[in-house]
Amino acid sequence: MTLTEMITAYNALTAAEGYIFGFIYDHKLYYVELTHLPTEILKFNRTSSKRGGIPKVRVRANSKFRLMMVDSGKAICLGGEELLDTADQYNKGERFERVITETLTAETWVKDSVPFNVAGDITLHGKQIQIKMDGAELTNEKTLMRIMAA
Predict the structure, then answer these.
(1) Residue range 136-143: mean pLDDT, rounded
(2) Is 67 exposed, middle or buried (0-12, 13-18, 19+ CB in 10 A)?
(3) Per-residue DSSP letters for 82-138?
(4) Do the strands 55-59 and 42-46 form a parallel or antiparallel pair, or are they unpaired?
């Protein structure tokens, strides 16, 4: 699948009605609420050949995009980047999801494995919201093919 085909399939399958995108800028952790993920921050690549070379889409913003979000006031600062530096078994994306969940919903975050086509990561303002940290995998071809075949 091409990047365009993967994004089209993802958008048709996702349960998300909006997104929270997190990034580090000037050693601070920011987030921005988006109705959709702009194509300029969606990047196509493949897993290593050792892992089968599966095509995937990553969410990765360049410094220009991050600066534009901060300067426009759309990005909200949560604090220093050390918010993601906790001594636990979770990765930065999971830690970001915890910070967002506990900050915006006042609920205690619990790691789950609910697929993106079933529900978002949180419910905010009555909408299903998918949470993604800069550099996260949005989806991959294998996942899309499995969901479409079901």
Answers:
(1) 94
(2) middle
(3) GGG--SSS--HHHHHHHHHHHHHT-PPP------TTT--SEEETTEEEEEEETT-EE
(4) antiparallel
